[in-house]
What does this fold into?
Amino acid sequence: MQQRRILALILIAICFLASVYGIQRRQADEGLVFRPTRDRLELISLEGTINSSRSNPNGALAVRDHLFTAGEDESIKGVLLVINSPGGTVGPSEEVYQAAMQLREKKPLVVSMLNVAASGGYYVASAANKIYSNSGALTGSIGVILSDLNVRTLLDRVGVEPVTFKTGTYKDILSPFRPVTDVEKKLLQELLQSTYEQFVQDVSKGRTDPSMNRTMTVAAVRKVADGRIFTGVQAKVNGLVDELGTQEDAEKELRNLARQRFGLDESIELPLERVRPMFWGTFGCADCAIRTGFLVPQCAVG
It folds into this structure.
């Protein structure tokens, strides 16, 4: 009898955990969150490496969805985007950047950089009406990188001969089993250059904001877009951030911009509230996705 009770409790616990996990996954896909209806400001956090994983509630795709939702919610008068990210892959970085650019057309968007907002993290930040950075925060790193390992020499030493069947000349480009040809090097460099040019153009577009009386030309961006990392102080000198200050300073500025944008009286409080997915994190982890298969080289903005 005792064993049956224990077994029943275990089954109930498994069912409960499975239900919670299912709710979390559905909310990650649909962006379901608790959202009050009163006028307010919203805080959204972008944390960690920028990629296409949905297991991180503060990851790129979740942030993109939150930005879209905040743009449509008339009770949200402004968004504070707090970034603590070293960057990541190109596609998700651009997704969040575009969502941020759309949001700022509707309401104020202020970014606060914490420890690091570099590469793809800065790509996203550049879309803000105003960027605040801590003095010692690391940012910049505007550039694109693609790297891979080649094991051909090692295979020759141990007497292993890989065999590949393919249907296109470049289908196995960057294969670790053979040297990269000069033609392939040229193709890959052209690919990186195209992505780099898009990065530079988007940063210029983001840092040019008539409402803030601010312009940053493509030429000006290109001068600092050589992969260098800047401190917050250096970034301000080079026009990559607007103010040195804390997250609290950024919040105050966002509140001022929101009142100006919507003609709100000082008596209106406009509290800052963090967007929180329902039940997220109760039993989850920051990044618990299971990954299988071959490692595919990806371009990273950084």
Summary: The radius of gyration is 23 Å. The chain has two domains: 1-30, 34-143+181-281. Residues 34-143+181-281 form a domain with the 2-enoyl-CoA Hydratase; Chain A, domain 1 fold (CATH 3.90.226.10).
